C-alpha cells in the first residue's frame, strides 16, 4: 500500500528537531532508519501529518568507548556497531546481536536508537540494554533526563518516552575485561524476529561465576531482565544442573503471545533452551 500524505522535515541539529516536535505536536512522528515506521505507514497503521527525519543530526552519531563507560548516539546504525573494532573489543555482544538483526541492507540504515525506542517487543537490542544495565538519555523542551532501560518499557509499543522527547544517547558501564557473552536467537528464517532469544553476560573467577545478567527477547509484551535467573548462576560452577535451574527461572517470567511463531508453551520451551545455550556459550568464552 501507499502511505498517506505528510510533510517532510529534516532538521540539522537536535535543538531544531526538538523545536519541530514542540511546534507540530502529536501530528508529528520521528523517523530514524525508518524500518519500523515506514511499513506501518504503508499499512495505514500510522498516518502522521509530519515526519521529522533525524538523519542530519550529527550529534546523535557518535560511539564513545572508555574503560568505565560506553556511550552510543541514537543514530548510530547497526552496521556502524558491527564495524567498530573498539566497541567490539569492549562489548562484543553488540556485534553478535547486530549481525542477527534483519539483513545487511536494513542494518545499513537501521539505528540503535530506533531499535530500542519504539517499544517493539520483537526488537533485539532492548533486552541487550536491559541486560547491560543501560541508561537512556532523552532530550525535550524541558531539558534532558535519564531513565534506566529496565524502567523504560511499559507495554508493547508503549514506553516512558514523553511526547516531544527524543532519545539521544544510550550509555552503560563497560563490561569487565575477560567477561563471557552470548546472544542466542531462534527464528523461523534469517532476518526474522525471534521466536525467543536470550542474552547473557557473566564473569568467572577460579571456576566460579561471580556476576551474571540475562535478558530475554520477544517472550512477553516487553523485553525482560531475568534478575532471579541470573542470581541462580552467581556463586555456582555453571554446571549443567545449575544452568537448567536458571533457565527454568527465566521461563517462569515469560508470557509470550500465541502467534505464527508457535504456541505459547512451545515458545516458553524455546526460551529455556536459548537461555541454556547462551549461558553455556558465555561460560566457555569467559576468561
How does this model look, in words?
The protein is an alpha+beta fold and about 290 residues long. The protein folds into three domains: about 45 residues, Uridine Diphospho-n-acetylenolpyruvylglucosamine Reductase, domain 2, CATH 3.30.43.10; about 110 residues, Uridine Diphospho-n-acetylenolpyruvylglucosamine Reductase, domain 3 (2-Layer Sandwich), CATH 3.30.465.10; about 100 residues, CO dehydrogenase flavoprotein, C-terminal domain (Enolase-like, domain 1, 2-Layer Sandwich), CATH 3.30.390.50. It is built from twelve helices and 14 strands. Strands 4-5-10-6-7 form a five-stranded antiparallel β-sheet. A four-stranded antiparallel β-sheet has the order 11-12-13-14, with helices on both faces. A three-stranded parallel β-sheet has the order 1-3-2, covered by helices on one side. A hairpin with a 2-residue loop joins β6 and β7. α10 packs antiparallel against α11 and α11 packs across α12. The longest helix has 22 residues. It is globular and about 60 Å long.
Amino acid at each position: 500500500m501507499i502511505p498517506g500524505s505528510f510533510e517532510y522535515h529534516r532538521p540539522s541539529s537536535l535543538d531544531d528537531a526538538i523545536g519541530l516536535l514542540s511546534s507540530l505536536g502529536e501530528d508529528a512522528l520521528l523517523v530514524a532508519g525508518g524500518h519500523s515506521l515506514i511499513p506501518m505507514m504503508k499499512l495505514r497503521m500510522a498516518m502522521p501529518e509530519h515526519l521529522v527525519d533525524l538523519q542530519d543530526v550529527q550529534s546523535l552519531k557518535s560511539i564513545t568507548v572508555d574503560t568505565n563507560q560506553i556511550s552510543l548516539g541514537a543514530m548510530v546504525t547497526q552496521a556502524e556497531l558491527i564495524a567498530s573494532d573498539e566497541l567490539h573489543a569492549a562489548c562484543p555482544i553488540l556485534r553478535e546481536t547486530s549481525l542477527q538483526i534483519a539483513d545487511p541492507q536494513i542494518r545499513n540504515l537501521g539505528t540503535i536508537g530506533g531499535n530500542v525506542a519504539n517499544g517493539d517487543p520483537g526488537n533485539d537490542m532492548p533486552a541487550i540494554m536491559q541486560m547491560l544495565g543501560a541508561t537512556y538519555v532523552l532530550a525535550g523542551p524541558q531539558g534532558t533526563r535519564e531513565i534506566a532501560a529496565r524502567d523504560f518499557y511499559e507495554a508493547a509499543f508503549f514506553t516512558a518516552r514523553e511526547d516531544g522527547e527524543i532519545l539521544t544517547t544510550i550509555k552503560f558501564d563497560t563490561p569487565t575485561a575477560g567477561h563471557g557473552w552470548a546472544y542466542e536467537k531462534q527464528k523461523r528464517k534469517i532476518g526474522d524476529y525471534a521466536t525467543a532469544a536470550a542474552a547473557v553476560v557473566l564473569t568467572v573467577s577460579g571456576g566460579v561465576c561471580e556476576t551474571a545478567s540475562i535478558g530475554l527477547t520477544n517472550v512477553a509484551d516487553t523485553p525482560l531482565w531475568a534478575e532471579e535467573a541470573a542470581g541462580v548462576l552467581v556463586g555456582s560452577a555453571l554446571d549443567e544442573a545449575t544452568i537448567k535451574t536458571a533457565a527454568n527461572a527465566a521461563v517462569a517470567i515469560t508470557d509470550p503471545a500465541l502467534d505464527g511463531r508457535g504456541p505459547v508453551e512451545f515458545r516458553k520451551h524455546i526460551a529455556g533452551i536459548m537461555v541454556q545455550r547462551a549461558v553455556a556459550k558465555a561460560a566457555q568464552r569467559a576468561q
